[in-house]
Amino acid sequence: MIEKIIENLNRKIGTITGFHHLKISVWGNDLLDSFQYNYDFHDHADSFLSLKESEYQPAEIILIVGPINYNQLDQIKKRYESLQSASKYVIHVKGSMHKTQLENSYMSVQNLGEYLPIDLEYEKYPIDIGELLDQIIDTKDGILHEK
Amino acid sequence: MKNKLEELYELKVISKKKNYGDYNCEHEKFDDISFHLKSNFAYLWLLDIVATDNHLDDERFSIKYVFLDVEENQLFSIRFNINESSEIKSIAHLWRNATVFEQEINELFGLRFSRGYTGQYGFSDSNYPMRKDFRKKALELIPNPLSKEYNHKIYPEFNLKRNLYELNLKVEDNLIQKCQLTGGNFHLGIEKILEGKNIRDTYQILESYYPNKAISWSHLLSTSIEDFHGIEISDRAQAIRMVLLEINRVSNHIQFLIEMSYEFAIDSLYNEAIVWMKRIQSLVISYTGNEFGKTCIRYGGVNKDISEDWFSRTSMEIVKLESSILQGYKNIIQNSYLKNTLSFRLMSKEVASSWSITGPLVRAVGINLDYRKLNPYYFYKDVDFEIPVGINGTGYDLLLVRIEEIFQSIKIIVQELDNLPTGKIMEESINSHMFIKEGSREFDEVEYRKSVMGHLKAADFDTTKLIEGSNGIMSISINHRNNEMYRIKLGTPSFICKSLFERSMAGCELNQVKPFWTMLDIDLKEAER
Known about the structure:
The structure holds 2 protein chains of 2 kinds.
Chain A: H1 2-17, E1 24-27, H2 31-36, H3 41-49, E2 61-65, H4 70-82, E3 89-93, E4 120-122, H5 129-146
Chain B: H1 2-8, E1 12-16, E2 20-24, H2 27-40, E3 44-53, E4 61-69, E5 74-82, E6 87-88, H3 98-109, E7 112-113, E8 152-154, E9 167-172, E10 175-181, H4 190-194, H5 199-209, H6 214-229, H7 235-263, H8 267-288, E11 297-298, E12 301-302, H9 308-334, H10 336-341, H11 349-354, H12 360-365, H13 371-374, H14 395-418, H15 428-431, H16 445-455, E13 461-468, E14 473-481, E15 484-491, H17 493-504, H18 513-520, H19 524-528
Parallel strand pairs in B: 2-5, 6-7
Antiparallel strand pairs in B: 1-2, 3-4, 4-5, 8-9, 9-10, 11-12, 13-14, 14-15
């Protein structure tokens, strides 16, 4: 019971300070536009910017925003395979262009699910960053709980 | 001068308007024409090379060169048709930025140039994506591996950009020998996506894929259609468009300041710039409903009128914003760290001219080139504003030019809002579908939709339009046939700057790479498309 309370408290502090203890590897063509230019982004900027993955801190979550091409896919796959963490998650935000618009494209990856196991799909666009962060935490918590 | 050229080389006039001429010539003569142009026009910018696949014609491909004569204020294009097997004479020895365009045409259309190019995406030799007979299922990608000579890598500091590109350098004794940007991550074939789309979808796709420049792209698309069909938009719509375009410029410059201050760890500026950005965005949101200004500019005028509330709020906010930025500006000039870091020289005037560089970058170098002054559209000839020009051509000059441009844009917005004309915001014939016809008792949604779609049709046209964007001259070349986009080419300043950066890094010191890259403010999504 006490553990639960402490966990909730941590999460509450995390929401206030923007620090969620998640190292995120971010990819995708819509990344800069959807986050940087988002009206709410700067309220949550620390959540993304301070949580850099590095050699010493490998990412736990791969976040893909918007369409990606085959060049990017190769790199994401390599990164996914190189992650040592036993619990690694892929989150796909669909982004600015929907499937029918991308039909003509020769470089965009149409069905990402065929190449990578996707744990969470977020379809809302423009992104509600607060909601997305909550969903990321919930997904991670849920999978941790199952283990 | 151009009339002489017309006679000398028997150029066929396709269309000729006040500030734009479209000519046709024979392929064999183009080599002489290009040499004549370069030697007789001191300030001739090559803005774009557009290839089109007319797969039903005998001479299948058409190549169109878009030039801007900066001295005489003339935009003109020269085109010729060629066969698949012909070799095109490269003009990269005359205009250095031609390498970038020619390389892209070589890679995406499979056309041969007299200069050899290697592809960066790795398409196979038999299946070129921008050709009309491209087979998507047969697509094979064989990317070129990165050469092992690169011994140093630089990653962006900004976490969101961290995985999107890296700068590969070959360094010897702290001097850079070679630089290559690992690219290809942003190439989505947006021009292919737009092929076959109607005007409505084109607006939507361009605005969604480039939200931060949605206003500029929708404006370019609208003016292309309006200009060709002779649609004259009302004074009020023109003024509103000007206000929106300048707001867009301010917001892009502030975004640059946010990124720059993050890269150089200037926290005070970062925090201030975020406040400025939010102020601007809140104005755009209250006008258009989204922070990017999407769905606002459409052909025939603008979709939404300026309300009294928005008008008074904006007039007040914009003045506050100006004083706040002025305070930030004073802090920046006192920051000696920034001045020292950005004291590197950007490039010479000759390099800027031979690469046809535009925007704040060329002005920082000392060339007074602004398309708003050169060819004043709307009320730019009536409003009072100045073009800031750099003296030393350093990175610091570029920063100051950008900040000064924010003040000048605010000046334009204030003048426009003070003298906002009255009248309609949408051209009458286009707007008519908004009203229910007399005699019809009920609102029929199906009829209404048909009517809307009917009005979104346009006749066949082929044109090129320019606009002074926040980062340089943006252009759009449209070939519209049978009510759909046959070929659409987006010209962006980032496309040239990316290549210029790679070449100009040779011989520089290692510590100059990051400041130079940051100051260029290259949008890779626009560069690779």
